Amino acid sequence: MKTRAAVAWQAGQPLTIEELDLEGPRAGEVLVEIKATGICHTDEYTLSGADPEGLFPAVLGHEGAGIVVDVGPGVSSLKPGDHVIPLYTPECRQCKFCLSRKTNLCQAIRLTQGRGLMPDGTSRFSLKGQPILHYMGTSTFSNYIVAPEIAMAKIRSDAPFDTVCYIGCGVTTGIGAVIWTAKVEPGANVVVFGLGGIGLNVIQGAKMAGAGKIVGVDLNPKREAMARRFGMTHFLNPKEHENIVDAIVQLTDGGADYSFECIGNTTTMRQALECCHKGWGQSVIIGVAEAGKEIATRPFQLVTGRVWKGSAFGGARGRTDVPKIVDWYMEHKINIDDLITHRLPLQDINKGFELMRAGESIRSVVVY
Ligand code: NAD
Ligand code: DAO
Ligand code: ZN
From the Swiss-Prot or TrEMBL record, what is one GO molecular function term (predicted)? Predict the structure, then answer.
């Protein structure tokens, strides 16, 4: 069949809209009509060329929602008509990683996914016979995709696609880092570096967890109002403080119980660790730093009880946890609507990237 898709031909170039050939689902795969997709900073990271694993030409996009149209042989958990959110972190429930219960990083299809291919080592997308690569196993910048069954969360059918698509990455990454990775407890002081599409979800996760002070740190003063609406109690702009770590330690009576780095900058990663409370403060790195960058601190920071952690997709087990987050949204326990600042048709997808680069949007969503 044919599918309209935004193709990334090479790093640093705008996407172009193409009519691609899409082969049907093979064993263990499903064909999904994507109804909406968010544009996330990680798509920009890959498109910019900063991602060492970035491959071209490819169909980017990893924050979608849609409807199953067809299933390949052996698929048992999904059927045509099911509403789904594609998962860039699958959940096979059988690999060593899934069975460990210690991580959400299922490895069942990791190698082929990282090479832009389906698990059998081939691509379903092509143009005039030239294979076009998949991206993160999702490629939601295509109106139709083929993806493995284990990389689909089945969700309730009354949830609107143009908001719940954001649960495919940003919402789950931010809220999950608070409740599953850090396990923030009521009354804890939380500090969030970066109040973008991820950081604002960390803020709403911290509020849900019953955190005490919720301190937001951002260079962009326009982010303050939105962050306060989501539960931030104090805002610090690093431009207004000689030493941001000292300012946080003073404000939180000795340091953060939990801090979250949602920027992808190794300097703020260090600040996020060093603003933590002596003896127990934990810092969670969510931001993805540029290729080749390294983090540093004095080891004594760890000797004296601070803990450095990382979180991918909020520690969520996608097929199990994503449907729960959709329920929280439908039950008004979390707010997604106010974070979606722009909706665009596919042909305007490059405008969505420009809005993100200019710091004008929180989330732009492409609606097919
Ligand atoms: P974003 O651009 O929407 O937000 C970043 C925010 O950081 C902006 O508000 C910006 O003003 C602020 N900022 C930039 N430099 C700063 C500095 N030096 N000090 C203070 N504030 C600063 O980005 P996003 O979509 O929220 O993504 C954040 C990061 O999370 C990215 O690196 C992205 O790749 C990563 N990410 C990680 C995961 C994961 O699973 N770990 C998932 C999705 C995204
Ligand atoms: O090595 O098992 C693995 C895959 C890890 C993927 C984690 C992705 C999280 C960071 C990238 C942000 C995605 C939007
Ligand atoms: Zn697995």
Answer: zinc ion binding
* Contact 357 CB / ligand 1 (< 6 Å): no
Ligand 1 centre distance from Cα of residue 51 (Å): 15
Q: 329: number of CA atoms within 13 Å, CB side?
A: 28
pTM, 2 dp: 0.97
Same domain, 114 and 180: no
**Overall domain count for the chain:** 2
Going by C-alpha positions, the residue among 163, 130, 127 that lies closest to residue 142 is: 127
Compute the distance between CA of residue 338 and CA of residue 240 in angstroms, rounded to an integer. 28
Q: What value of ipTM does the predicted structure carry?
A: 0.98
238 lines ligand 1 (CB under 6 A): yes
Q: Is the CB of 263 under 6 A from ligand 1?
A: yes
User: Would you state the pLDDT for residue 127?
Assistant: 98
With the C-alpha atoms ordered 46, 49, 52, 57, is the resulting torsion angle positive or negative?
positive
pLDDT for residue 170: 98
32 and 134 inside one domain: yes
CATH of residue 346's domain is 3.90.180.10
CATH number, domain of 261, equals 3.40.50.720
Looking at the predicted structure, is the pLDDT value of residue 53 above 90? no
Contact 168, 40 (CB under 8 A): no
Compute the mean pLDDT over every residue in the chain, rounded to the nearest whole number.
97
Give dist(CA 20, CA 18) in Å, integer: 6
- Residue 346 CA to ligand 2 center (angstroms) comes to 25
How large is the average pLDDT for residues 181-196? 98
Q: What is the pLDDT of residue 100?
A: 98
Closest CA to 250 of 266, 231, 236, 229: 236
| Domain with 208 in it | 171-312
* CA-CA-CA-CA dihedral for 120, 123, 128, 130, to nearest 10: -90
